[in-house]
TrEMBL record:
Name of this protein: Histone-lysine N-methyltransferase SETMAR-like protein
Annotated source species: Plakobranchus ocellatus
InterPro entries: Transposase-MT_Hybrid
Source organism, top-level taxon: Eukaryota
Phylogenetic lineage: Eukaryota, Metazoa, Spiralia, Lophotrochozoa, Mollusca
Length: 113
């Protein structure tokens, strides 16, 4: 089974190939809708990638997302749950704000856990 990242790279590859052939963004989107159906990316995303691919040498194009600084997309929720559980077992009167500060999550995240 392909991961969402694999599917993303496949879609970008299709856009890159068709853009290199000189197809317009509308034509590429129509072709992709035929193949992918509801799983197709949006019109503005296709146009963005066509602009990127037409401005670069196809041999130097990188289809994967580059590493970025900032907050990670996923959080190790299991580890947070274990920390929160330990804090609550140690002190049943611990406040949500104290949990959030100690674990390093938002107050809303502490409430959900």
């Amino acid at each position: 089974m392909a991961t969402s990242n694999d599917l993303l790279i496949k879609r970008r590859s299709v856009i890159e190939f068709l853009a290199a052939w000189g197809c317009s963004a509308a034509n590429i989107l129509a072709r992709m809708n035929t193949v992918y159906g509801e799983m197709c990316i949006s019109d503005c995303a296709v146009r963005k990638w066509v602009r990127i691919f037409k401005g670069e040498d196809p041999r130097e194009t990188i289809l994967r997302d580059r590493k970025r600084s900032g907050r990670p997309l996923s959080v190790p929720e299991k580890a947070h749950r274990e920390k929160v559980d330990c804090m609550i077992r140690a002190n049943r009167r611990v406040k949500q704000k104290e949990i959030a500060n100690a674990v390093g999550i938002s107050k809303e995240g502490a409430i959900q856990i």
